[in-house]
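Loading example: each entry is read as two labelled lines plus one structure line.
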Amino acid sequence: MSSDTSHAAREGFQPHALLAAVAFPGAGHMILGEVKRGVYAAIGVLGLFLGGIFLGGIDVIDSKEDRVWFLGQACVGPLAFGIDYLHQNHFKVRDPVSGRLRSARPDEGRGPDGTPQRLEIAPAPNTPAVPTQPPNRKSIGKVNELGTLFAAIAGMMNLIVIIDASYPSKRQAPSKNPDPAASLRPEGSA
Amino acid sequence: MMSSLLAYRPFIDPIDAHGWWFLLLLPMAFFVALAYKSVRVADLKDLWRNTLVMSAQITLAMIGLGFAFYLFVEYLLPIIVPRT
C-alpha cells in the first residue's frame, strides 16, 4: 500500500483502529498499516507500564487500594485489568477477621484457599505444602510512588495513542513549505 | 529482616531504588517522549532526534522546577511566613 493510498483511506474516524488501540497499545496504528509507528508507540507505553511494575512490583497495580491511580493505569487497556485481576486473586490474601482482600504481611504466606498463613522458612520434610515466602512484597516510599506514577503515565500516553489511531487524519502532514510564515505574507512581498 | 532474606522476584517484588530514585526521571522522560513523538512526528526518520530533544526538555524542566521549589521553600517561604 502506497503512502498516498493509505493516507486517503484513513480520513476521519476509524472505529476498527480505535478498538485495536484499546485492546493493545500501538495496535491501532499497526492495523492502519503504520506498523513501525505502532511498534514505537507500544515501546513507549509498555516501557512505562512494565517499567512501573518492575520498579514497584505488582503492588503498584491495585484497583482496590489505589483506585484513583488505577483510573489512569486502566487506559493501558486489558493488560492493566489482567494484571490487576492477577494481583487481587492470586497475590492478595483474604483477612480472616474482616473478610477483605489485603496484601500479605512480610511474615505471611498465601495458602491454597487465599487465607494468610504463617511463613515457614525451613518446613519439615513431611509437612503439607507450607508457604515459604510472601506472595509478593508491598512496595513503600519513593519506589511505590514512582512505580505507580510510571504505570499511570503509561495510561495517559496510551490515551494519546488511542486518539491518534482513531483520528489519523488529524496528524500534521509533512510540511512542503519550509517557511510557514511565507503563506501569510501578501503576494509579491519578500 | 525476614523479607530481606527472601529471593527477589522481578515484576512481583519492588526493587531497592531508595538511594537513587531521582535517576528514574531519565527513563521516565525517555519513554514519555518516545510514546508522544511516535504519534506526533510526521516522518519517522525524525523520531529519535525529536525523542532525545524532548527527553532533555522534560529532564531540564523537572530539574528547574525542583530548583524553583527549593528556593521557594528554603528562602521565599520563611520571608512570607517567618518562623516563630
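Chain A has seven helices and four strands.
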